[in-house]
Q: What sequence folds into this?
């Protein structure tokens, strides 16, 4: 499952108080209205229960698509004096100041991430685009969740869900790459969420997830495990799950390619560039390990299909090591409990019979001796050379550049109209996000007196 990003919220910012347009007087006013609609949509999304947020993503996406042409047009007019093919004059009456809540920075447990003040239009554009990328990842999660529902989806429904999730992740990758080309503020003072290293990491992470779910469509083993864990599944009563042959070597190379992308994301999120959320760092490392373990598993299937059973066992051991699991000999060959004591005592008694030359030694038909041979031989299937000689990764996707929405000529022509003195921009219906903690219900502290969380007593408290 892709990483569950949290959508940021933003402050109420009247753009018409910071910028003006002699050629298109209505442009700042209309941009303020669209930004307020986006702010309200983000606030409502944040306050929804988690189970309802997936259905509300399309509303936030429509609000972003409504505001993005205006903010990109203003940024283009400030830097080049043009929006598309039309000449547009936009000037700064004072430095634009916006606030966005940071969602990737590390915070204390139980506390909300802080809001960061941002200067300039391009930083506002970067956060709007990053929010759009988060929405794409969340929509991919919603599609992949269909695979784990109690009602087993049909093969066509499964293929459609995986294809849709892949499309969303590739779109997120292109958006993060587009943000890299924006002229943002100095990286030394930029927030950690939008610096170039974070964008490189998030783009690589989205591409790694898109590459890894490419294998999911044709992986029969994952499907069999999901089906076995489903309590409502009754197909096992009719027939055992079929495991068709797969293009194991190709799938292994795709998984290794996903691991390379995850490794690049981990390198860009390396400690030292700032205090990032530890859950994101752990997720990237787990994704890299999972991709390499999947590659080793497919190589084990490929080796077993060609009769190289020992090599297949070694690859499976390597897969367990990549996941950080205990080796097989520690799980299966460790002698525990009463059975382990009996086995050890029987072996010692057989050894004494052999040493004394008793006529009853070997009555077990060499069973104990063979068990010792297997225990000795099991560690001999070394996996380090095989893991080191795994093939290089193979790219599956060719990401396309992101094309943001633009203002069309007819809309720009309408924005040339002068401003009505009695007309005001829509400023939103939601309260300012800076006062959220005060507006919420007081937290209930277990074991405390009523009203202890707010420093006072409740008027209707019962003692």
A:
């Amino acid at each position: 499952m892709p990483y569950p990003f949290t959508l940021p919220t933003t402050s109420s910012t009247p753009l018409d108080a910071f910028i003006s347009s002699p050629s298109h007087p209505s442009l700042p006013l209309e941009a303020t209205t669209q930004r307020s609609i986006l702010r309200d949509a983000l606030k409502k999304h944040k306050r929804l229960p988690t189970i309802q947020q997936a259905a509300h993503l399309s509303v936030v996406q429509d609000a972003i698509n409504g505001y993005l042409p205006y903010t990109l047009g203003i940024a283009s007019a400030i830097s080049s004096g043009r929006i598309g093919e039309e000449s547009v004059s936009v000037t700064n009456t004072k430095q634009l100041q916006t606030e966005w809540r940071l969602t990737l920075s590390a915070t204390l447990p139980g506390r909300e991430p802080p809001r960061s003040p941002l200067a300039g239009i391009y930083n506002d554009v970067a956060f709007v685009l990053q929010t759009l990328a988060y929405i794409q990842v969340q929509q991919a999660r919603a599609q992949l969740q269909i695979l784990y529902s109690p009602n087993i989806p049909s093969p066509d429904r499964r293929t459609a869900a995986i294809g849709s999730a892949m499309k969303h992740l590739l779109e997120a990758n292109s958006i993060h790459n587009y943000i890299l080309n924006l002229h943002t503020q100095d990286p030394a003072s930029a927030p950690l969420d939008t610096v170039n290293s974070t964008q490189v990491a998030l783009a690589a992470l989205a591409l790694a997830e898109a590459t890894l779910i490419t294998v999911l469509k044709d992986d029969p083993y994952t499907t069999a495990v999901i089906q076995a864990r489903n309590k409502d599944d009754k197909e096992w009563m009719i027939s055992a799950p079929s495991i068709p042959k797969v293009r194991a070597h190709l799938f292994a190379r795709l998984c290794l390619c996903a691991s390379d992308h995850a490794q690049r994301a981990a390198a860009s999120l390396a400690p030292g560039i700032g205090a990032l959320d530890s859950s994101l760092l752990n997720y990237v490392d787990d994704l890299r390990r999972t991709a390499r373990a999947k590659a080793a598993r497919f190589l084990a299937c490929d080796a077993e299909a060609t009769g190289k059973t020992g090599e297949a066992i070694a690859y499976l051991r390597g897969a367990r090591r990549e996941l950080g699991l205990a080796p097989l000999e520690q799980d299966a060959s460790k002698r525990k409990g009463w059975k382990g004591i009996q086995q050890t005592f029987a072996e010692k008694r057989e050894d004494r019979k052999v040493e004394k030359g008793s006529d009853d030694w070997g009555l077990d038909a060499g069973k104990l001796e063979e068990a010792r041979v297997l225990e000795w031989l099991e560690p001999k299937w070394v996996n380090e050379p095989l893991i080191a000689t795994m093939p290089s990764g193979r790219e599956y996707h060719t990401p396309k550049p992101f094309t943001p929405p633009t203002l069309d000529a007819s809309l720009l022509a309408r924005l040339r109209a002068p401003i009505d003195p009695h007309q005001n921009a829509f400023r939103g219906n939601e309260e300012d996000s800076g006062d959220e903690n005060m507006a919420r219900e007081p937290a209930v502290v277990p074991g405390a007196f009523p009203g202890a969380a707010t420093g006072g007593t409740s008027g209707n408290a019962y003692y």
